[in-house]
Design a protein that fits this description.
By secondary structure, this protein is an alpha/beta fold. It has 3 domains: 2-150 and 275-345, FAD/NAD(P)-binding domain, CATH 3.50.50.60; 163-272, FAD/NAD(P)-binding domain (3-Layer(bba) Sandwich); 356-460, 2-Layer Sandwich (Enolase-like, domain 1). Helices cover 31% and strands 27% of the residues. The chain has helices at 21-30, 45-50, 52-69, 85-109, 166-170, 186-198, 217-229, 322-336, 365-370, 386-390, 419-432, 436-441, 451-460, and strands spanning 2-15, 35-39, 113-116, 118-123, 126-130, 134-145, 149-151, 163-164, 178-182, 201-205, 233-235, 238-245, 250-256, 259-265, 267-270, 274-276, 309-311, 350-352, 357-362, 375-381, 397-403, 409-416. The strands form 5 sheets. Strands 1, 2, 3, 4, 5, 6 and 17 form a 7-stranded mixed β-sheet that branches. A hairpin with a 5-residue loop joins strand 21 (397-403) and strand 22.
Amino acid sequence: MVVGDFSTEVDVLVIGAGPGGYVAAIRAAQLGKSVVVVDKDEVGGVCLNRGCIPSKALISAAHRYEVMKESEEMGLSAEGVKVDFGKVQAWKEGVVKKLTGGVSGLFKGNKIKFVSGDAYFVDETTVSVSDEDNAERFKFNHCIVATGSRPIELKPFPYGERIVSSTGALALQEVPKRMIVIGGGYIGVELGQTYAKFGTKVTILEGTDQILPGFEPELTRLVDRKLKKLDVDVHTNAMAKESNVTDDEVTVKFEVNGEAQEVTADYVLVTVGRRPNTDELGLENIGVKMSDRGVIEIDEQCRTSVSNIYAIGDIVPGFALAHKASYEGKVAAEAIAGHKSVIDYKCIPAVVFSDPEIAGVGMTEKEAKEQGIEVATGRFNFAANGRALALEAGEGFVKLVANKETGVVLGAQIVGPEASNLIAELGLAVEMGATLEDVALTIHAHPSLGEVVMETAEAALGQAVHMIQK
């Protein structure tokens, strides 16, 4: 390894090129700072290369395959529909390359330098970046750490050819005949449903009493119903205990309410959470305060205990969400530039790209009541919406939660078609302090799924037109 004997000086050094890091870098450059981004892997991070984008591409392909097979009720039938999974994967990689190439172009257009290698803090203003051949030092005025997270590995289920993380599951070159998913959270459900649609016999083992823990049962119930329709075996209150791996398959032993069971499959997908990537940066040597789990403490401007070092994304408190990381990246960059930007998590949406989709923003009814707020709620079903029925997507509903006295919208939950897109309007409503009347009086295009949002607000006001209210 060749080590440089001088340091390159830069205003802002960003460690990590994922959706937090690259957004922070671009915003800092927009604000007139010289910026260098360091990442040991590809531009775009886990999200673009091995997470959000490739998973949604596979979800989209699986949905199209399902629709092609099951449109006879519309009078449409097709013969010889088949999956060439190699081509599916090639198409998915094409989507990824377009987006990562776009980020590289944005770096170039904003005069941001990208450096590949492992970063390690030498002191509070210097980072060493090394790969197999070279090492160089960067002296910075400010640093934004955005190193993301990695899948948690369970000791009885070490990753290998037959036991894989989400990264491995997204890279399979064949549709497995059988797959076991350990963990019924959003990653497990999304990928489990995807492979089930491609024809895999899927078994999901979830340790709590429902899939998608953290979401209200009235939302997850419809996803559970779809899983059953796809012949997915779901075991809740299930604790995976051990594995037996051969060249061709793997057997998992688990317990449900103390009863021992086992299941065999071609692959096991482990999705039990993620761990922050803060353990190999040398942060502890320069006084950056972290929890026992490696989560970095930050203030309202994403500043760590070391005043010129900021942290964002999966390595700080809160949900591990790409859009949260991007938001924090902008706040950190603006704080470095002297702006008064601060983080406010009131309107961070949560989305599960399941079938049907689930989305939520702001407070749930339960959370509002726990804060002593008297609430007004409204609910409207997609089954009464013309556009939803025309899309063969009439399952699900929109629910609104508002302050009963003022009418101010506090939160919303959606399960149904395009929930991931529809939640944006309601996030804006919560952010701007809109009332139920504001939403109800906003004219929505007809026929559209967005009308369900309007009708839900009307329902909360007792004015619903397309439903009978008691």
